[in-house]
Amino acid sequence: MNLEQNNDVSFTGSLEAVKDELIWIIRSLNPDKIRSVRGIVSQTVFVGCKGLSGTLHLQPNSISEFLSLTVYLNPTNKSLPSKFWAYIKCQLLHDKQVLASSTAVGTFSRKQNYYVFQNFVRPSDLDSRDRVVVCCFINVLDRRVNQIKSEVSSPGLDSRENNTGASRAKNEFKKEKVLLPESISTFCTRPVCRKNSSKHYSYLEILGVESSDVTLVSRGEEFPAHRNILASDSVVFSAMFIRSAEENAEINNRIIINDVNPDVLHQVLRFIYTRKLSQYELVPDVLIAADKYELGKLKTLCERILFDKMSPNNVCGILLLADRYNFQSLKNWALFFISAFADHVIRTPGFQVLTNSSSTDLMAEVYCEIDSFLHK
């Protein structure tokens, strides 16, 4: 699809390329154009020194209530291979507030030149906004990534990002510092409970304990909560409350949670109430719980944190996690990362753990990915 030659498409706002970042400033938002089938499109600009031209397209998603964001990347010279990978991190900002954020790794070629973030933002989030900014950081990944020093924790997240247009333009968004253990090899079975942690209901600091109408119990620790808040975020919690009420109406205010330890449950509740996490070393465990209880936003946040902080030292643990719990997007990125940084990864203790503990099929995938990467 050639957007510039299609007269039905509405081009809106100004697009600027700053190094490897596209900054799309959309002024005087027109709700009718945004909600139209075609949506709105940016002009095409040259992207940094990567030999690419980039275009952004915001339009309604035909299968959901969201707007999708499509990132078009077209090679403009022969410096890039016919097929390449790109790490893309997009955020939508308004007055220093992040309205939407998505991260992905996509495969691009001259025939397949776009990636779609399906559920990027709700149209209602853009109502009454006189100006919004879409920031897309793009990092092309190819065989040269092996030359990057192992100190770089993840492609697209090195020091260059701090000098991009988004941070210079009023410091529109801040990157959260996240610390992860160097090797992730244990999961929800690990005993990390704190003494008397049930007394610290930080997630209830606004609503208060007194108004709670349900108590979640994990390994003897009690967590007061509110049914309507939990049910609105998770269909699993909603079904749990209904089943509990049907089974025993007298004691349905206590729900036993056997599959999540207290520290992880505390983080899950903290996110449901405040949209924040406080113990980032528990992110792998929280991701498992978010998937089990169908907490989509929390799962997306945990995956983004693991994407962003992936390094040669922890990637094998992340791959084991993704393979065991079928987090396919995270697994694909971990496989690619291992192939890109193979020289460093195979020297880490995590790779030895991966070799000893993983299935034959998973190791076959790892070696196949490395071989495919080296022979592109």
From TrEMBL:
Quote the InterPro entries the UniProt record gives: BTB/POZ_dom, SKP1/BTB/POZ_sf, TRAF-like
Q: Which SUPFAM superfamilies match?
A: POZ domain, TRAF domain-like
| Family annotation (Pfam families) | BTB
Q: Ranges for the BTB domain?
A: 212-281
Q: SMART domains annotated for this entry? A: BTB (SM00225)
Q: Domain of life, per the record? A: Eukaryota
Protein's recorded name: BTB domain-containing protein
